[in-house]
Amino acid sequence: MITVIVKYQVPGDSDRAEVAAMFKQGADGMFKGMPHLYSKQFCFDENSREGLSVYLWENRSAAEAFFSDAFVEGFSASMGCVPDIAYYDNLVTVDNLSGDVLTD
């Protein structure tokens, strides 16, 4: 498993509820049921306007295929900034919803 952390600035002056609605639309339209993606968290700090997305992928090749140059270009065009993307080997995940501990 691989965890990818993406940091970016959220443009404009949207409040928390408006940003949450935008994230929900993206979750439903793009990420729900996506192959090889185990989970994705959309995070937002209203004071700094920093967005943080945390992805848990099945493997690094699936993650790298998603975070292509085309993804970065599209993200930059829609959000007005280049995202910072970092990859981490995910060794252990505690999943309290399923009551499981996942290991790579």
Largest sheet: 4 strands, antiparallel
**Overall morphology:** globular
Q: Nearest-angstrom radius of gyration?
A: 14 Å
Can you write the helix and strand succession as a string? EHEEHHEEE
Q: How many distinct domains?
A: 1
Q: pLDDT under 50 segments (min length 5)? A: none
The total strand number stands at: 6
**Which percent band covers the strand fraction?**
35-45%
> On the 0-100 scale, what is the average pLDDT?
94
Separation of the first and last Cα atoms: 6 Å
The CATH topology is given as: Alpha-Beta Plaits
List the strand order in the largest sheet. Answer: 2-3-1-4
How does the helix and strand content classify structurally? alpha+beta
Task: Give me the number of helical elements.
Answer: 3
Output the CATH class name: Alpha Beta
**Any idea what the CATH architecture is?**
2-Layer Sandwich
Helix content: 25-40%
